[in-house]
Write the structure tokens for this entry.
Amino acid sequence: MEDSNKILAVKAMLVLCQQKLKNQQRIKAKYNWRLNARKSQHVPDGNWKIWLILAGRGFGKTRTGAETIRHWVNSGLYKRIGLIANSINDARTVMIEGESGLLSVTPPWEDTVFEPSNHLIRWEKRRALAQIFSAQTPEKLRGPQFDAIWIDELAKFKKAREVLDQATFALRLGKLPRMIITTTPRPTKVIKSLIARDDVFLTKGSTFENESNLAPQYIEQMTKRYSGTKIGAQELYAEIVEDNTAALWSWRMIENAHKVPPDMQLQQIVIGIDPAITTNNRSDETGIIVAGIDEMGRILVLEDASAKDPSDLWAAKVAQCYAKYNANAVVVEINAGGDLVEQILLATNKTMHIKKVRASNGKLVRAEPISMFYKMGKVFHNQIFTELEKQMTSYTAKPGEKSPDRLDALVWALTELTKHTNSDMDTEAWNL
């Protein structure tokens, strides 16, 4: 009996030891950044001075910055570090005490001490320290010197150029002084100048790269509300978005088009088509845009069904849209393909009303009136049409510029619709 109790006690002890070992392994794995990080979050190789991370919200910029500083400190090569945020409060609540800040990513055994009153973090075992600075007072960077600096959200600093200059002057210690900049991009001169530098390693990333660590509801809301918009391109996809002053459409015009009036009752609906000439990997897409107009002359773009498909498939899509929306007509460009395009379409639906148009005028002449309808607030989009809207806000109609397929289809559809804005909108007017 006594031996049995001893055996049971030994087994229980072994179980406890195994559990303790598993817990230790789990804790170590939690703080193993090399194991948990995505490839784009690893410190890059190469002879660079600044690691610039332009990424969307939720990408993990803060975690990457904090883990990089921790890695540099643990390497023993970096002893004096500068931490720069838009304000001292931002540095504390995001870079240090935030969910992905320095204190959160550092395990207890690394003996890290935060001194808020002194604006300092100390790594006692490594004999390293980090000083906190506000971007609002860049002159305070004139005295200190560092072997590493982390700047967070540089793009929103009012004195970004002065902060970057002073930080660069202060980065003069050690064998390999380096800087990491984590920021959501904005089209500022400082950001664009950094991208152009030879000593800058650029990492770009979207919110959706970190989708597994974000709430599904957040992803759904962000996608639905902001995908395809200027703010979405900037804040989610980390694109540096500027209005092209030569373009016929601005992002503001597109964003206004998303504000669809609730009382629109469409009277007539057409489908504009810009068919691709060829059907290989290098072919353009066939532009297919469905739009309608109400009795007040307001236009609603209903669907963008454009695709890089062979003729039988894109014709089938047109037929589906024709039936789905009970369309009145299909407007198709026939500069290339001629009667063959009409035959392909009629093969899918013999009763389809087809109006053939030929691009005799320049693209600018055709597109400008449609752009004016947008400026007047007469055109709306039933949803965010990402690719179409990108074409619209980049198209300048310069000689030699590639013809945008989706935009061409939009122009054909809306040109046909606006012919009847002053008519009685009767059925005979649409007997094509």
Notes: The CA atoms of residues 154 and 160 lie 6 Å apart. The first strand starts at residue 50 and ends at 55. The domain at 33-213 is CATH 3.40.50.300 (Rossmann fold).
